[in-house]
Design goal:
The protein has 507 residues and is an all-alpha fold. It has a single domain, classed as Growth Hormone, Chain: A (Up-down Bundle). 76% of the residues lie in helices and 0% in strands. The chain has 20 helices and no strands. α11 runs parallel beside α18, α13 runs antiparallel to α14 and α15 runs antiparallel to α16. The longest helix is centred in the last third of the chain and has 44 residues. The radius of gyration is 24 Å and the shape is globular.
Length: 507
């Protein structure tokens, strides 16, 4: 049991670091003299490396064993965190963040599979609740903790904070975890072409999703090439994985209805958790002008609500079908997104409180049942391979959601701005009065370098853009609500899992 607790700490810090830089990107960029279009790669590099490595965790666990893979992952994550703190320019930071994501990735799915070893029968409700809480709370707390560290000290502490827990995990896991034995002979017959195809496909897919909006998608030659490479590589990888006898990823697990639906639901929860964390700090930072600490304080209530939801879920999971708890959680999350869509340019922490409570509380209801419903229906020997796929879908959902949200905000801001601007004419009484009022006040200022009318026009442009941007954020939240509504309707298709299917019956 102590080994499981230590592994959960490792999972927490690996998930925390996906978003710990979210509210501090401007500070990191300033400290490293980075251009605006380079800063986002501090986050993107981590996600690309993590998404590529997570599906390989099942095969790597069989090669090195759970104990030593987790130990190596924790040690590598800790060392790369130190390198991130010592980065001297944006290029070195991006490289070290990629290493951090790649080396720490295996700490996430191995916790999922280990829970089935440590907890049996009805006790799996507790393990699923713990894992679900970590999976939902850690990314939510990332910007909060990151904002506080950056304001209280500086951005280097976003990475220094990993060193002590990372070293503790590296020392304790070999002493406490003993689940399986390594089998280094698997290295000889591994499907290395399949690994290369999967890495190429997922890496270029993540790049396409992250950079597509910035470069106007397929108008850019590089985006067209990476999209083509991704499609071809992933198709070849799927074809090869279904034909070879020793695939590194068990795609045949998608033949299990619970697992397939569970992966889709995991994908949608990834959209909700990661995209909302992306959108909220973005809105508060650019529309409201909040600092990193103010952003963290404003979204802190989501993490508190998630923690409160955990004991409630455990209590209800003993009495009710997990499918209906999951449906309730997804529906509640959809309602929260509808609440977010009512956002105005005046919203701050107080106005966001209720939508964030409504989003944070049901996160464990949306995540925890999917662990038992999706993975619990598979035979034990397939769990290691399937867990990597299951976790990858959540992170991939986050990548797709963030890319889609960025595209919506970008395109809809321009659309709403055009609609607002066409109504701001000389025939509009409010517009004329605003121009006259602002112009008169500006012209009366001592030492004014410009005429009042020009200053009033600039002020009017900023107001129109702020409102257009706010409406675009509302559109993005509505899109997330639709995704969760679809997910809610799919829950009844899940079967309540019984005892795991024996290996002989699984083939």
């Amino acid at each position: 049991m102590a080994g499981f607790v230590v592994m959960c700490v490792g999972m927490f810090i690996a998930l925390l670091d996906i978003q710990i830089v979210a509210s501090s990107l401007q500070d990191i960029g300033g400290g490293l003299s980075a251009a605006q279009d380079e800063i986002s790669w501090v986050q993107t590099a981590y996600l690309i490396a993590e998404i590529v490595m997570i599906p390989l965790s099942g095969w790597l666990t069989r090669v090195f064993s759970t104990r030593w893979l987790f130990t190596l992952s924790a040690a590598g994550f800790t060392a790369s965190s130190l390198l991130c703190a010592l980065a001297w320019n944006i290029q070195s930071m991006i490289l070290f963040r990629a290493l951090q994501g790649m080396l720490g990735a295996s700490m996430i799915p191995t916790v999922f599979t280990s829970s089935f070893h440590y907890f049996q029968g009805a006790r799996r409700v507790y393990s699923a609740a713990v894992i679900g809480t970590i999976a939902s709370v850690a990314p939510t707390l990332g910007p909060v903790i990151g904002g506080w560290l950056t304001d209280a000290m500086d951005w280097h502490w976003l990475f220094y904070v990993n060193l002590l827990p990372g070293l503790a995990i590296t020392v304790l896991v070999p002493m406490l975890v003993d689940i399986d034995k390594p089998d280094l002979s698997l290295l000889r017959g591994a499907d290395y072409p399949g690994i290369a195809l999967m890495a190429a496909g997922l890496g270029t897919l993540e790049y396409t999703l992250e950079e597509g909006t910035r470069w106007n998608w397929f108008d850019d030659a590089t985006i067209r090439r990476t999209a083509a490479i991704s499609i071809v590589s992933l198709l070849l990888f799927a074809w090869r994985s279904l034909r070879v006898s020793n695939p590194v990823v068990d795609l045949r697990a998608f033949g299990n209805r619970n697992f397939a639906i569970g992966c889709f639901l995991s994908f949608v929860t990834g959209i909700g958790i990661f995209t909302t964390i992306y959108l909220t700090p973005l809105f508060l930072g650019y529309t409201r002008g909040f600092s990193a600490f103010q952003i963290g304080a404003a979204i802190f209530s989501t993490g508190i609500a998630s923690l409160i939801g955990t004991p409630v879920y455990i209590l209800l999971a003993r009495r009710f079908d997990p499918r209906w708890l999951m449906a309730a959680g997804l529906a509640c999350f959809a309602s929260a997104m509808v609440s977010y869509s009512l956002i105005t340019s005046d919203w701050g922490g107080a106005e966001l409180l209720w939508p964030q409570l409504l989003r944070g509380f049901p996160q464990v209801f949306a995540v925890a049942p999917s662990v038992n419903l999706g993975l619990g229906s598979l035979p034990p020997e397939r769990l290691k391979y399937a867990s990597g796929l299951f976790n990858m879908m959540r992170n991939l959902g986050g990548a797709v959601g963030i890319a889609g949200a960025a595209a919506i905000v970008n395109d809809q801001t321009n659309l709403h701005f055009d609609h607002i601007a066409t109504r701001m004419t000389a025939a509009s009484g409010p517009t004329t009065r605003l121009l006259d009022s602002v112009g008169a006040r500006y012209a009366a200022l001592p030492g004014a370098l410009d005429d009042g009318h020009a200053a009033a026009l600039r002020q009017l442009w900023h107001l129109a853009y702020r409102e257009a941007s706010t409406l675009a954020f509302a559109d993005a939240f509505r899109a997330i609500a639709i995704a969760f509504l679809v997910a809610t309707l799919l829950v009844p298709l899940l079967r309540k899992p019984g005892a795991p299917v024996p290996a002989s019956a699984a083939h």
